[in-house]
Give the backbone structure.
Amino acid sequence: MNVINIKFLRIMFISFLLISLSPSSSYSASGTRSIKSTYDIIIAGAGTGGISAAIQAARMGVNVLVVESGSWVGGQATAAGVSTMDDMSRQMSGIYEEFITRLKNYYDSRGKSMGTAYWTSTRSIAFEPHIGQDALIAMINDARRRGTIDFMMNSNIIAVEKDKRRVTGVTVQLPDKSTRRYTCKVLIDATEYGDILPLSKTQYRIGNSVSKFPNSDSMIQDITWTAILKKYPAGVPNYLRPLSPLPGYELAKRNYESFVTADGFNFRNKYPVDTPVNFATHNSYRGLPDSSNPYNYDADRATREYITKTSVNWANDYPGTYSWNGRRGLPIAYLEDRNLRLQVEREALIKTLHFIYYIQHELGEDWSVADDEYNNRILPEAARTLPREWQEIARHMPPMPYVREARRIIGKHTLTSHEILQNSLSYRDGQTSHEFPDAIAIGGYILDLHGANTDSDMEWEFNERSSSSITNRPRGPFQVPMSILIPEDTDGLIAAEKNISASRLAAGALRLQPITMMTGQAAGALAAFCARENKLPKEIHAIQVQWELLNSNVDLSLCHYSDVPEDHPANKSVQISNIHGLIPANEYPHAPSFNLGWIEDPVIAMAVIRGADKGVFGVNDMITKLDTNGILDRARASAGVSGEWEVFDDKLHNFVSRGDFAKAVCDAFPNLKNAKYDKNVRIPFRISKHRNSEYVNILARLGALEIYRRDSEFRYGSPVTKGEAADIVVKAAVIASGI
């Protein structure tokens, strides 16, 4: 079969997949081909956060409608062309890990490296945007086997309906400009700009001001309209080689000459990078695998000159060095004023188009936009006034810009850069835990602002200054708390993208693709609980969401133990114990499992070499009655259980037996006696007349005694170990929190 036929078949296959996402033929797991009027969850935006939320919620059996303004799924990672993962800590888990695993399987089967970016093959993850979208579509279709995910593409939510504080539905404008109303139990804002917040009359932060009292002088970060470039060994096709520059080219040329020249520097393994760099070094900064190239390469010095596909995302920030009225960054009006937004995005697009002209006419390179990534049937609005010879190039540009900063909800809690720093220091050098009790994701990145990073741009109410990006820089992986997904003043709304409740600096570390995928997954789980239990987001206990995420292969704790490996039956429960401080460990680690600054931090590097990045939980140590009182008291608080309960009050230093422990758990969580359980569940233990058999039977029916599932007889008198206690108590607390 020739190359043309293979390419044709692939286009037909992807077209078939994308048809399933179109507004006229969206389908659900039940096989219906019409959009319903009512959904459990409506998600605004099909970006990294929105798609992850949709997949997680559907896997939990609820029905979801995704409303996306464009024609692509994947947002910044695919539609915006930022497909070089900014994944410093490599804390892969959950849907993000599934996504990367699918991509790795694809490239491994073709003998290609994904280590094509950031001048290193060992610490970079890169993929082609269209391959990323293929992987997401496959994950969406898999999730549809368990729940509904319908799509309305090229559509926009233009109004949000509320009953007092509670969101009840939305009005959607379709591609033909007609409108329809849809009701929902939960609305998730996963837009790139936080566009649902003003529609829902939710208070938000914007720049360093708030929506009640916006400061027109507030600034936000640069945007970037990226491009995916490809080498054409036989010469660039005429339709991808413009003859005339666009207006403003001379300014752009001077800008690009300071970054990339034909005789520029090679990357020399040091930062900051010596500029200008040569073209091969530029290409290996955001290099991508190339499915059309039969040969393999990576970003290392030996093969980087053979790279044939790259992303342009360096010297083309907008306004970048151009500045905006003498200041770095963009005014907040970019987010608030749709006309200014269009103007800014048009200029950002043109700035990147200038680079294509620059490399062809100044550097003499046979490179242009890749013809196998984007082929926009409808030109992006920002490109519609371009000269005709540039419009064909624009059709092959990403359909949306890379937006780094959005409106941010004022949530139940606002995360600051200092809190991220403290959290990242958990267990470091023997320090105590600073884990967030409501942690729902782990990320790892620096406090990175592209422009708008002077003292006057910061939020002084959080004691943040320009220097805070250094002094508060995370020293390792850090957690994301659930409370920053929930608005303070609007019920039934959840944030799932760059719009979460954080200071500008903290948001600068939370905006990257890996973290937004994981926070999106958590938002989907939270929304699914709300829909299933008919509760508001603020009424769902974090421990419920955490348990669901842990069972969806999401890592949540920053603490690892040598005696509780990943495959240990109590591993998930011990993670919950760490987060909520339920059971003290025998010995805590002296280093995180991975550290952002490991290259420059020899103390941490040596701790990892010695194995000090893992502590000792004491999983087989026995616990006393006094221990049990403390464990259950803390677990009750995590589950939201109040009131008095019968604690052990004699022989407190004696080890607690399994039978007495079962009774104590049921006493601590009295609502377990009323919990629903599967009547088909068989109690695995032999019938007993022991005085505590009633409590053992309750816990067994609810699945809280799975740690003993291999025992045919419940040994009432045997002592309880820390691992057993963690597993039983956490499962009991999770069940009790949902009753």
In short: The two ends are 60 Å apart (CA to CA). Residues 1-20, 22-33, 595-600 have pLDDT under 50 and may be disordered. The chain has 21 helices and 21 strands. The longest strand covers residues 179-189.
